[in-house]
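tool_call: predict_structure(chain=1)
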Amino acid sequence: MFTLVNAVVLVVGIVFLFNGYVIFNRGREDIALFVMSLVVGGGLIFVALFPDIFEVVATLLGLEWKARAMLVLSNLTLFVVVTYLFNRIGKLYERLSKVNEELSLLKEELEEQSDE
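tool_result:
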């Protein structure tokens, strides 16, 4: 049965896929972000179209209710996404620190040249 929740999940999945396409099409060439968008968006679309898949997942995991299977999978997905984002933030912080250091060195060099 297709419900309002399924429709919302389908739209959110399509937005994730579109966002990944836009990022990749702009030439930013961030393959990891593109793949993450594809996986999350594709997963959401799959769940929206086949909501009964959680019955199978619940059975495989030995859980009584499909709601518990949904919670387990959503928490695992959030864990992966948050870990990925923390990793990206750390790398961006390192790059920003390096740019600031180089900018300071260039500024100092420029000041020394202007004093001469």
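agent: Residues 1-51 form one domain. Proceeding to next step.
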